[in-house]
Amino acid sequence: MSHTHNVILECTDLSKTFYSTEPPTDVLDGIDLTVGDGEFLVVMGASGSGKSTMLYNISGMDRPTGGRVALGGKEITSLTDAEMSRVRLTGMGFIFQQAYFLKNLNIQDNILLPALKATPKDRTGAVKRVDDLMERFGIAHIKRHGITQISGGQLQRASICRALATEPAILFADEPTGALNSTMTAEVMDALTSVHRAGTTIVLVTHDPACAARGDRVVYLRDGQILDSHAMGAWTEEGAERREDDIFAWLAKKGF
Ligand SMILES: Nc1ncnc2c1ncn2[C@@H]1O[C@H](COP(=O)(O)OP(=O)(O)OP(=O)(O)O)[C@@H](O)[C@H]1O
């Protein structure tokens, strides 16, 4: 984390055990993590190292077995389910490998849903925010399309619009380019770089060093622990290739 950043998210001694298995599965084992306000943090690690589980537990989608998580200085681990839902709806945005959109609504109405839920009395404001976002991410012309009528890259940019329409302080992304070809991956990563430059904090889980190169810092997970952290400074198009090589070399040393 850059020293100029204030802390937005802080996890202390976070652990997660699944008791649904016999024997129980320890997945997160004493995670200490600080994310700076406005930081673009990348989470990497081998398959099964606990990346998704960590993302779900730091974002209140799941409840850790131990430890605490504070968002903006406020502990969220002890909130009720209803309080937690409200924090997720108004303070956080989420994107996943698959866009969870409703088939019977067009793209614009899908993007509008969470924004209307967050501010039901301000439909005009929500529509304006959504229109501006769709314009900014190059999908305004397909707003009346159905979700099966657009490309995977457009669908993921729509997911980004939906996540940002509530103006969250932090955006969590779990392998958002995992199902995309390299052209669409670049489109989505350009969108995330723009989101980051506009000041939103991002936590991105990815397997792809080219995507990781967009971040300010990469943490590496192994067996549910943060093994190492690699600070990179701000991404530029000119420096992209060198950063990617640098991440490759860093990962190779960990046997990735
Ligand atoms: N609900 C669950 N019940 C039991 N075990 C689980 C559950 N969810 C995840 N796990 C286990 O936790 C471990 C970490 O899973 P997780 O999905 O967090 O890893 P990951 O690093 O994101 O992997 P990938 O890169 O393959 O997505 C795996 O061994 C997985 O089987």
From TrEMBL:
<dbReference type="InterPro" id="IPR003439">
    <property type="entry name" value="ABC_transporter-like_ATP-bd"/>
</dbReference>
<dbReference type="InterPro" id="IPR003593">
    <property type="entry name" value="AAA+_ATPase"/>
</dbReference>
<dbReference type="InterPro" id="IPR017911">
    <property type="entry name" value="MacB-like_ATP-bd"/>
</dbReference>
<dbReference type="GO" id="GO:0005886">
    <property type="term" value="C:plasma membrane"/>
</dbReference>
<keyword id="KW-0813">Transport</keyword>
<dbReference type="GO" id="GO:0005524">
    <property type="term" value="F:ATP binding"/>
</dbReference>
<dbReference type="InterPro" id="IPR015854">
    <property type="entry name" value="ABC_transpr_LolD-like"/>
</dbReference>
<keyword id="KW-0547">Nucleotide-binding</keyword>
<dbReference type="GO" id="GO:0016887">
    <property type="term" value="F:ATP hydrolysis activity"/>
</dbReference>
<dbReference type="Pfam" id="PF00005">
    <property type="entry name" value="ABC_tran"/>
</dbReference>
<dbReference type="InterPro" id="IPR027417">
    <property type="entry name" value="P-loop_NTPase"/>
</dbReference>
<dbReference type="InterPro" id="IPR017871">
    <property type="entry name" value="ABC_transporter-like_CS"/>
</dbReference>
<dbReference type="GO" id="GO:0022857">
    <property type="term" value="F:transmembrane transporter activity"/>
</dbReference>
<feature type="domain" description="ABC transporter">
    <location>
        <begin position="9"/>
        <end position="248"/>
    </location>
</feature>
<keyword id="KW-0067">ATP-binding</keyword>
<protein>
    <submittedName>
        <fullName>ABC transporter ATP-binding protein</fullName>
    </submittedName>
</protein>
